[in-house]
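Quick one:
INPUT:
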């Protein structure tokens, strides 16, 4: 059974940067895609960025041009580089790993990102 662990969250000033990491205890050949989602208080959880193991990525309109998702296949790790951070980016960020042949993925515990204004 795959296990998912996020790290890299923290407190940063407006305009600053953070790099989130998602590690999966599963081989690349058994993973269909990995996505980053976020949830702020009182709001629905939303997709921020996703990447397939074939390297195809997608982003929410609100983060295009500021966030970049990338992967290291050898270590089954995905990163989310976040630049030009805004207070509106404040949320708990979750990693979701979807295995081949599955519809729903496995969630990590989440990592808090706080952007001060």
């Amino acid at each position: 059974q795959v296990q998912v662990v996020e790290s890299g969250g923290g407190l940063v000033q407006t305009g600053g940067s953070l790099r989130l990491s998602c590690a999966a205890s599963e081989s690349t050949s058994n993973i269909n895609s990995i996505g980053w989602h976020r949830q702020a208080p009182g709001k629905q959880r939303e997709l921020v960025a996703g990447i397939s193991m074939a390297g195809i990525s997608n982003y929410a309109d609100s983060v295009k041009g500021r966030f970049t998702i990338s992967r290291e296949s050898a270590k089954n790790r995905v990163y989310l580089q976040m630049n030009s951070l805004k207070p509106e980016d404040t949320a708990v960020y979750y990693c979701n790993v979807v295995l081949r042949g599955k519809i729903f993925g496995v969630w990590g515990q989440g990592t808090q990102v706080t952007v001060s204004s």
